[in-house]
Design brief:
Shape: elongated
Number of helices: 7
Radius of gyration: 17 Å
Strand order of the largest sheet: 1-2
CATH class: Mainly Alpha
Strand content: under 5%
CATH architecture: Orthogonal Bundle
CATH topology: Arc Repressor Mutant, subunit A
Number of domains: 1
CATH superfamily: Winged helix-like DNA-binding domain superfamily/Winged helix DNA-binding domain
Helix content: 55-70%
Structural class: mainly alpha
Distance between the termini: 33 Å
Number of strands: 2
Length: 169
């Protein structure tokens, strides 16, 4: 079966999986192990400034518990640290570490390099068409999304999913 015979959505899923494998392998090779599509967006957000777990959850459009689990994974790997008063964790903020900032920079460069490879293979006109196709698919899958445009865009960018117990049309 050629790629021309495959369902577009199936190809998009395969592309997402291939990009994620590429990211994980390259980050691991660069000395930044254990990062994936659920963790990198947190690092990218924290690279812009400190945030609470609650703010990250809202930004990503995920449940607070899920965001807290992701943050714990990043903290255990030394990519983020918590700061603030002891005791009440609601007032503590997260800050990216030097290792987290390095991983974020490497990930951004990997993304840019991969896009250049794709552009070289497709050419500029086809790359513009591909961007339009992806934008239409993202728009079709986020219509009626009650999580807001930022969360929908983030989910589309990083492969996140709405909370399973939240109604989602």
């Amino acid at each position: 079966m050629s790629d021309g015979d495959r369902n577009l959505i199936a190809l998009l899923r395969l592309a997402e999986d291939a990009c994620e494998r590429h990211r994980a392998e390259r980050l691991d090779q660069a000395g930044c192990p254990g990062l994936n599509r659920g963790l990198v967006p947190i690092l990218r957000t924290l690279a812009e400034g400190d945030a609470s777990v609650g703010a990250l959850a809202a930004e990503m459009g995920v449940a607070l518990r899920e965001a807290a689990q992701r943050v714990e994974a990043l903290e255990a790997r030394g990519y983020v640290r918590r700061f603030g008063p002891a005791g009440d964790i609601r007032h503590r903020v997260l800050r990216i570490t030097t290792a987290g900032r390095t991983a974020t920079e490497i990930d951004r460069q990997l993304e840019a390099d991969l896009e250049q490879q794709v552009a070289a293979g497709l050419g500029a006109p086809a790359l513009d068409i591909a961007r339009q196709v992806f934008a239409v698919v993202v728009g079709a899958t986020t219509v009626g999304d009650d999580l807001g445009p930022r969360a929908a865009a983030n989910r589309a960018r990083v492969g996140g999913h709405p909370h399973p117990r939240r109604p989602h049309p």
